[in-house]
Amino acid sequence: MLAVDAGAELAAAQLLKVRGGKVLGNEYHGFEQLELADAGEAISAFIRDYYAEASLLPREILVSLLPEDTEALEEWLSSLRQGPVSLRAPQRGEKRLLLDMARANLASHMEADLREQRESREQGKAVLEQLAGALGLDRLPFRMECYDISHFQGSQTVASMVVFEHGRPARGDYRRFKIRDIVGPDDFASMAQVIRRRFEAAREGREGFNQVPSLVVVDGGKGQLSAALSQLAELGFDDVSIVSLAKREEEVFVPGKSQPVVLERDDPALKLLQQIRDEAHRFAI
Questions:
Q1: Please, what is the average pLDDT of the chain?
Q2: Is the domain covering 136-284 a CATH 3.30.420.340 domain?
């Protein structure tokens, strides 16, 4: 039994595993960053994702709504099972009652999920307000990008780009860059190169790079900050705020100031900068 709902804020699926009229399992699955037109598309996406990894496939899958590609799905599922699999949307009887139970469970779980997401966003907004105030930003950094340079075996250099939206990781937007044509480890030149490549891609409207951050964070000190800032200015992205975070003393440097911005070690704003910096380092390696 599969009930799926796709709303403006959340898409989710409730899966009841039934055999002989008895419920053997009840699973809730929330979708992240879905861009689906309706519940039919959500059902199709879930079936393809879930059953591609399933060890056992049922002969019949009861769904709250038959998707447009039902025939193609049945053919694909049958090939995986090496036997016939059918999709059905029951309108009456015991199977309909079980499906209604799945829908009720789904609605309850989605309500709790949405409440948790909204509370998390409110908490995240409060931290972003603290960060904007501490750094003197003229807008909240709803989209933050952090860049880290890593060296492997003394020769290969890789830059990572990680993205936080509303204070939370947006892992689908993470990127890695192989640094080109730079001899030896040179963090300043490498930082300049990755910033130029990323924002040239934004200026060209390249897919995956067309969202411009409200705040760029670079791992390092004044040198890395200066290298990145010069590229933003050359490419015409002067309105993008930028800071650097130096790991040794966790100092935050901003353009135009010789002394770092001092944030207390337990300041939520500093912890957010540390979180995105540490995530960039983890992703690089």
A1: 85
A2: yes
